[in-house]
Every structure is written in structure tokens, then in C-alpha cells.
Amino acid sequence: MADQLAGLGYHSLAVDLYDGKSADGVREAFQLSTGLSKNEDAALANFKEAYDYLTDELGVEKVGIIGWCLGGKWSLRGSLLLPNEIDATVIYYGSLIDDRAKLATLEMPIIGFIGTKDRLHKQFIQFDEDLKALNKDYSVHVYEGAKHAFANASGMAYEAGLLRILGKKRWRFWLNT
Fold first, then answer.
1. Contact in structure between 11 and 54 (CB atoms under 8 Å)
2. Residue 18, burial from CB neighbour count under 10 angstroms (0-12, 13-18, 19+)
3. What is the DSSP string of 73-118?
4. Residue ranges of the domains in the chain?
5. Who contacts 161 (Cβ-Cβ below 8 Å, separation ≥6)?
6. What pLDDT does residue 17 have?
7. Per CATH, the architecture of 2-175 is what?
8. Does pTM surpass 0.85?
9. What pLDDT, in 10s, does the model give residues 65-115?
10. Rounded CA gap, 102 and 2, in Å?
11. Which pLDDT score, from 0 to 100, does residue 18 have?
């Protein structure tokens, strides 16, 4: 995805939330994500460093965050960390926050994607209600029958036809922000 964004002329940076580590299997991936949950301050500091690098070192004027699954969760967390600095947030089926006081700080447009067969579906419904009540610039797209990770081309729940549709929505959103 970083390459696709770069191909459109954007500066693109994939934030390393695992301190240089990577997983070769499900068990290792679970251990890394569990470790991340135990050290959220370090991950947030990494987001801030990434933002500072893009703006201070590269002179980027607009910064957006996009993430899938755990990355979707962290795209929202990063946006909450820098609510006045981030210019756009894209969340694919990530775990969300339902704290309206925190969500009220968000100033950027937000777009979210979720399937009705995803265990996080109800969180997105609540998120939709919260952002609507807060009069935020957002859209939540719910796809009937889609499972978690429907946008992951290497996964079992991949929905190629659906991805073409929502990909167009995502790019229109990104390009208009």
C-alpha cells in the first residue's frame, strides 16, 4: 500500500510498531501484537516520530494515516494522538474507541470500512453513532456478508470485487482530503 500511495505522488511511510521485529507465523504475530498492547506508549511515540520525520525532515504539508486490522486500530490511535495535525484517517476493520470525549478531539475527515460478518462490526456501528452525534466529517461503509480482513489479498476472506468498489471510495476520499 505504501508503494501505491507513493505511485500517486504521496510521501509514504510505513510505521514500524514492532521495533524492527517481524513474524513468520500466526503465533509470532500474536506475540508481537500482545507486546504492542502492553507498550502502547512506545507505539504512540513511534507515530509522533514518523509524523515529525514527514513534516520536519521531508517538508510534507498534509499527513494521513491508513491501517488494516491492528493497523486500523493504530490509525485511529495515531489520529487521537495528533488530532489537529493529521489530515485524513482511513480505518479498515480495526478495533475502535467509543469514548466520545476522546473522539471529539478529532479534526480530520475519517473513513472506515467493515463487513457485517466481522466481529468488530458492532464497534463500527457505535463509532458511526458517536461520530454522527459529534458532527464529525466521516463515513463508515458497511459491507453485507464481508468477513474480517476482506481487503487482504493473501487472506481467506478476501473479496476482490468488493475491494475494487471500496478501493475507489478510499482513493476518492484520499485524493479529496
1. yes
2. middle
3. HHHHHHHHHSTTT--EEEEES------HHHHTT--S-EEEEEETTS
4. 2-175
5. none
6. 87
7. 3-Layer(aba) Sandwich (3.40)
8. yes
9. 999 888 999 999 999 999 999 999 999 999 999 999 999 999 999 999 999
10. 28
11. 86
Whether the Cβ atoms of residue 13 and residue 53 lie closer than 8 Å to each other:
yes
> 144 and 116 in contact (C-beta within 8 Å)?
yes
Cell triple for residue 1?
500500500
* HSE, side-chain direction, 13 A CA sphere, residue 126: 11
Residue 36 has pLDDT above 70, yes or no: yes
Does the structure show a pLDDT above 60 at 131? yes
Q: Which residue in the block uniquely carries the three cell numbers 500482545?
A: 34
Q: Look at residue 160 in the predicted model and tell me its pLDDT.
A: 58
Query: How far is CA 154 from each of CA 8, 14, 44, rounded to the nearest angstrom?
Result: 23, 19, 28
For residue 35, the one-letter residue type is G
